[in-house]
Amino acid sequence: MDERIFPARGRRTVADAEAMRALGAELGAALRPGDLVLLDGPLGAGKTTLAQGIAAGMGVRGRVTSPTFVIAREHRPAAPGGVRLVHADLYRLLDAGGDLAGGLDALDLDTDLAGAAVVAEWGGGLAEALAEERLEVAIDRSAADGSREVTWRLVGVG
Q1: Domain residue limits, the chain
Q2: 3-state DSSP call for residue 17?
Q3: How far apart are the C-alpha atoms of 12 and 64, rounded to whole Å?
Q4: What is the pTM of this model?
Q5: Does 4 have pLDDT greater than 50?
Q6: What is the radius of gyration, based on Cα positions, of the chain?
Q7: H helix or E strand, kind and range, residue 101
Q8: Contact yes or no for 93/125 (Cβ under 8 A)
Q9: Fewer C-beta within 10 Å: the chain N or C terminus?
Q10: Where are the alpha helices (DSSP H) in 31-113?
């Protein structure tokens, strides 16, 4: 991931789920194997909706949902030569308590980074060790009109 593909820092007000998916599609179109995207925001902020857009932008198969019964799910590319997507909901690790680092290690996401783009919800403070370079995305849903303020920054790039 570099600035030629996506600006190093950005901010966008997103009015609804459709606009969130559109922003995700922009992000997804720029992802390559080895990229890590950390999504942060409160429950209901739109992290999974953004991940759905990322999947659409990457052109992967399968429906992206908030992983209720699994922590991570892999989505294969629809076209030959495409990039795999690993969508992880690390909230389940945080919610379980115990050894967070061990739980993250058990997911083996660092191995997946070699051939996939990893999108981790609730990854802040936990998944940074997976990659020195990453895209950190924060979603703020505090606006009275229901819109979301989405900010992002590239870390370790350049």
Answers
A1: 9-155
A2: helix
A3: 23
A4: 0.82
A5: no
A6: 14
A7: helix 100-107
A8: no
A9: C
A10: 47-58, 91-96, 100-107, 109-112
Q: Looking at residue 74, what is its pLDDT?
A: 77
71: pLDDT strictly greater than 80: no
Per-residue confidence (pLDDT) for residue 130, from 0 to 100 = 65
Report how far residue 86's alpha carbon sits from residue 92's, in angstroms, rounded to the nearest whole number. 15
In contact, 36 and 131? CB cutoff 8 Å: yes
Q: Residue 120 phi/psi, 5° resolution? A: -115, 115
For the chain, how many residues are written? Answer: 158
How far apart are the two ends of the chain, measured CA to CA in Å? Answer: 10
> Token digits for 85?
């997507």
Relative to beta strand 116-121, strand 36-40 is parallel
Contacts of 103 (CB under 8 A, 6+ apart): 93, 96
State both tokens at 53. 């857009």
Q: What's the pLDDT tens digit per position in 75-109?
A: 888 888 888 898 887 765 555 554 444 554 555 55
**Structure tokens that stand for 66 in this block:** 């908030």
